[in-house]
Amino acid sequence: MECPFQGPRLPRSRRWRPGAATWGIILAVVLLYVLGLGNHTLWGFEEPYVGATIREMAVHRNFVVPTLNGHPFLEKPPLAYILGALACRAVGHFEPWALRMPSAALAVATSVGVSFLARRLGAVRTAPWAGVTLATSLFFFEVGHAALVDMTHTAAVTLALGMAFLALAEPHRRGGPGRRCWWSTGCPLPAQESRSLAPTRVKGRKKQFIL
């Protein structure tokens, strides 16, 4: 059974050749998310929690179980904290812009991924503007400039669904290395959405494992 969302097969002359306008848009999106990362302190009540968890993970080099004040902090998936800890260890400090850098990088990657998806489905001329539309969305822009776990979830789900869609919507690649590449790359991405496997107390002394 064929997929109802099959896009047109692009000729080789129109593939993988982004022009100057496309590169200019990508550069503008990168500048949009790089500028302003460090011109303010940690905002709200959630950024300090995320920053403290990232700091403990980076200091103690425990990249498996996030901790807060020395106790396991299992309310959120760990990938966002892992990326933040690696970024802070790479730059050597815990400034606000370093804590927010993974969110900004993932926002840019998600915007470029949406443009790539549109291009693969045949929208060659409008593909760059699909990414721009996403990048300039108000809430997406806000989350991309914050040390939060939300952008990690958004990037993982968006890129995974996009790759799965390409695997189904390109019949000329079915059974070939291209389709296997989309499936093998996209399937592990949502795994970071699951919580760490850890025991939790429920109703007194009873324990159960949560995912």
Secondary structure layout plus pairing:
Blueprint: H1 20-34, H2 46-60, E1 67-68, E2 71-72, H3 79-91, H4 96-120, H5 127-135, H6 138-144, H7 150-169, H8 177-186, E3 198-201, E4 207-210
Antiparallel strand pairs: 1-2, 3-4
Tell me about this structure.
The chain has 211 residues and is mainly alpha-helical. The protein has one domain (42-191). Helices cover 54% and strands 6% of the residues. It has helices at residues 20-34, 46-60, 79-91, 96-120, 127-135, 138-144, 150-169, 177-186; strands at residues 67-68, 71-72, 198-201, 207-210. The strands form two sheets. The chain has a two-stranded antiparallel sheet. Strands 3-4 form a two-stranded antiparallel sheet. The protein is globular, with a radius of gyration of 20 Å. Mean pLDDT is 77; it is low at 10-14 and 195-211.
Summarize the model shown:
This protein is 54% helix and 6% strand. With 211 residues, it is mainly α.
Please tally the β strands and state the result: 4
Strand content: 5-15%
Q: Helix coverage percent of residues?
A: 40-55%
Q: For the record, give the distance between the C-alpha atoms at the N and C termini, rounded to a whole number.
A: 35 Å
Please summarize the sheet with the most strands.
2 strands, antiparallel
* Annotation field: number of helices: 8
Structural class: mainly alpha
Tell me, briefly, the overall form: globular
Oligomeric state of the chains in view: single chain
Listing every helix as H and every strand as E from the N terminus to the C terminus, the arrangement reads: HHEEHHHHHHEE
* Widest β-sheet, arrangement of strands: 1-2
What gyration radius follows from the Cα positions, in whole Å?
Answer: 20 Å
Uncertain runs are 10-14, 195-211
